[in-house]
Amino acid sequence: MRFWLRTEEMALEEMVQRLNAVSRHTDEIMHQDIVPLCAADIQDQLKKRFAYLSGGRGQDGSPVITFPDYPAFSEIPDKEFQNVMTYLTGIPSLQDAGIGFILLIDRRRDKWTSVKASVLRIAASFPANLQLVLVLRPTGFFQRTLSDIAFKFNRDDFKMKVPVIMLSSVPDLHGYIDKSQLTEDLGGTLDYCHSRWLCQRTAIESFALMVKQTAQMLQSFGTELAETELPNDVQSTSSVLCAHMEKKDKAKEDLWLALKEGHNILESLREPQAEGSEPGVNQDQLDNQATVQRLLAQLNETEAAFDEFWAKHQQKLEQCLQLRHFEQGFREVKAVLDTVSQKIATFTDIGNSLAHVEHLLRDLASFEERSSVAVERAQALSLDGEQLIENKHYAVDSIHPKCQELRHLCDQFSAEIARRRGLLSKSLELHHRLETSMKWCDEGIYLLASQPVDKCQSQDGAEAALQEIEKFLETGTENKIQELSTIYKEYESILNQDLMEHVRKVFQKQASMEEVFHRRQASLKKLAARQTRPVQPVAPRPEALAKSPCPSPGIRRGSENCSSEGVLRRGPYRRAKSEMSESRQSRGSAGEEEESLAILRRHVMSELLDTERAYVEELLCVLEGYAAEMDNPLMAHLLSTGLHSKKDVLFGNMEEIYHFHNSPFVLREKQLSSFCVQPRIFLRELENYTACPELVGRCFLERMEDFQIYEKYCQNKPRSESLWRQCSDCPFFQECQRKLDHKLSLDSYLLKPVQRITKYQLLLKEMLKYSKNCEGAEDLQEALSSILGILKAVNDSMHLIAITGYDGNLGDLGKLLMQGSFSVWTDHKRGHTKVKELARFKPMQRHLFLHEKAVLFCKKREENGEGYEKAPSYSYKQSLNMAAVGITENVKGDAKKFEIWYNAREEVYIVQAPTPEIKAAWVNEIRKVLTSQLQACREASQHRALEQSHSLPLPAPTSTSPSRGNPRNIKKLEERKTDPLSLEGYGSSAPLSKPPEKGKASPTSPDKKAKRHEVKSDPTPFGLRGWSKTSHSLEAPEDDGGWSSAEEQINSSDAEEDGGVGPKKLVLGKYTVVADHEKGGPDALVVRSGDVVELVQEGDEGLWYVRDSTTGKEGWVPASSLSVHLGQSSSAQCLSSSESSPGSAVLSNSSSCSEGGQAPFNLQA
Prior knowledge:
Elements lengths: L1 H28 L13 H5 L4 E6 L5 E5 L10 H13 L3 H6 L1 E6 L5 H14 L4 E7 L4 H13 L10 E4 L2 H5 L19 H34 L6 H42 L7 H63 L8 H37 L5 H55 L2 H4 L2 H16 L1 H4 L4 H7 L6 H32 L28 H71 L19 H5 L2 H8 L6 H4 L10 H6 L8 H7 L6 H19 L3 H10 L5 H5 L1 H18 L7 H24 L2 E2 L11 E15 L2 E3 L8 E8 L2 E8 L11 E9 L3 E4 L8 E6 L4 E6 L3 H33 L18 H9 L36 E6 L14 E2 L12 H5 L2 H6 L11 E4 L18 E7 L4 E6 L5 E5 L3 E3 L9 E2 L9 E6 L10 E2 L3
Parallel strand pairs: 2-3, 3-4, 4-5, 6-11
Antiparallel strand pairs: 1-2, 7-8, 7-9, 7-14, 9-10, 10-11, 12-13, 12-22, 13-14, 15-16, 15-23, 17-18, 17-21, 18-19, 19-20, 23-24
Helix pairs in contact: 1-8, 1-10, 8-9, 8-10, 9-10, 10-11, 10-12, 11-12, 12-17, 12-18, 14-17, 18-20, 18-27, 23-28, 24-28, 27-28
Family: Belongs to the MCF2 family.
Membrane topology: Peripheral membrane protein
Main location: membrane
């Protein structure tokens, strides 16, 4: 680097010296060092032509200066005269001027006095050497005579260093100067034009000045270039190089203009010679040409000096730019290689199964392929650096270490990849051996399980089974693990704690299996051995002794008792032995069955993992081979116009699904910069359950929320299929399919996510089938239910998006709970008159959508088309707000019918389900919605009562009362001093002393008419204010449904007889516990969800005193934990709503029976 700087300094010094020489030589050529005058400076004085240099020469080559007849010669200022003389004497070369000048003074038309004065002035002021002065005296007779006489008498006045010769005529002049050296006015033939001469002199001197200025300009420019500091980045270096190139081009342009000007002047000087008008050219013209040529030579020298300097300066800038490119590339490559090294350092996993190791090897190969771009770039950059060094780059000391570092990083990467691949290969080999051993064990277990026990009881069967076992044991040499110590030593480099434990378990399993085989082998050998027993003759015995324990009648005397004892002793022993044998066989059978189930579970798990990996590969193939190619400019010409900006429509959220299952899908050039990202990967989490497949349900449960992305994909599928049908013949898809070598078109792969989400529930069912008594059975069941729920939600959402004509936002209706097709009859009431609207013998076919806040009635319309376009659409007809809905479970004894009624039965819809099961499911779901509203009412009332218990009583509500709009009802409430905050069953002031006495009238006593006890409250969660006082209505229902309006409740007979609102009557009866309640006090009752209790007494602060119907225990429980028991009794239950009091909840137990045999349980919300 220092050497290069020194070289550049030397180049600059050399250029400066050469350009200074050019300036100096230019001054010498133009005699500027002696006569600093220029024609342009005294142009006006030269134009007077009182003296000129014609170019003529004397016989010895002396320059001739002619003073023509100029009447006003005496009036010329001395300064002007002196300037012109100095300038004219400075034009000839120093050699010619050294000879001396010949002055030719023409005074033929002047007087003698002027002649004398002119000669004396010239002689006194002439600045150069004089050789001869020739004077043409006046031609007039008198003046000539006078001049002769005067010259003789005044000769002493003309004594000069050179002789002064008075000539009488022009011919006398020719004796001193040749005619060819004289102008035409002096009788000569020399061509001279004063104006042309003046122009030429001005041009030559201007050109000389241009040469000098050009040299000075290039000298300054070169100094500026040499002093420019080199930038440290590519952008700035490129800018400097471009700027210097522009300045150099401008300077060269000026130089070329100067050269062109010099050549033009030279041509103009050569024109008379070129025309051939005269055979000869005067010496001054030749001198002028020589001057221009010398100036051109100096200009060429200037250009050469600058070009040499610029070549070195340009080389320095270009090498600087190369260095900056190299340094920038080095920084980028080093950053990527450092990231790659960090990523490799995180590759510590050696796999927990054969499939996992194979996957890690594929990942390593993929990572190596992605990283190869950076490695190849580093190698290419290193070669570029070495090439720069070979080309004598000035920064060798900076380039060489970087090249070494790049080679080191590449070698380190290759070595680390090789080391990692070696470890994984070792792990693959070990897992393959473990897998082989486990497979051998499984085959052995299958072999044991496949040998029938009954056939093994015979000698031939036992021998055949024994041969199978011995043959199988012979295969263990190449399949089983021989020694643990050998495994530990051979695979020491990869064995971690988990893998060692896995190896130990496999070895133990192998040993256990071999032990079972050896036991079976020993048993079969015993069965296969031929047993020969001696045959003893047995004599017949009397019938009376047939039941004797003695074996034969011949053994009687001394041996009889002994034999009897032996027989009796052997009997219990044989029974015990038989029982022990049966026990061992049952235990062995149970163990073999469990092992078989474990093998089946592993098979299901293997299928789950294999299909998952294949699915992930297919998704990646579609994303890289189709979706990414849609953004490839090289493929843009193949895309049809209908596909532009439609990638999201065609592929939906497939990329998001891929992110969930495997890893983020990014462009390959960005993958190296995102190595540090470690997202949760479903495939990896599944692989963690390879050793315990029965627990895989936990994996699904942990990621269940993420499966919602499939709902989004399925909702977009109709749009995707529609777009595919429009553009399936596009050349783009055909080209992508050709590149991927796919046999199936894209639409088959777009169906993969839909197929995959349905495949999970099948695999979970299989796993659950083989895991009934395992630890994770509950998780598997829950995961299966959740997956089925997702499939149902996906299916429901596909129906939901097909609804047309609904003006509102379906999302505002809450979660879609149920949907299905039903037969519907309508039955509306106008005022107090029940009217059948267009009584239909044939029901309407409606598709119902049950949301949390509304139920929608739609008409199903079948569509013509293919695929999803053939799916039905649903025309919106009407909707019912769940805040005003009620249901009656059974209608006219039809097990498939139920009622949905609205606004206190002003609108009744009889709904017939396809099956009783579907009806039950819908009734239960609607009951859940209404019960949740009741629960919200209770919680709101308790909260409101608690807030208002410390404040003054508020006036009775008006607009929010259940009986609003009826002045009579409002007046009744005011007369009774109704407390707007009291709510039956919630705000009673009765003390919590003892339970009521038996035998008191119950609200459902048979001695009274059918009554309805309703609790009206304001469910604050639905945004309404105010509470109404409970009223008890004893009026009979107006129809079989048993429903009454709010006005009937206020005008009940009980209220009129009492003349006011007396103590609240309890709604006695059975209730179902809907929430667990732990023991919170000495008098609290512990209940569980689903328990049935009987109300005994209502207490303060929302507590009820109840009796457990099962245990008979009594105690206090929160009222919010109870719901009216919906069992079969004389009074049925129904959930309802009434529009007469929007936002208020009414709990109604009616003893009247509906047409279906059940009275309603009414929840008004």
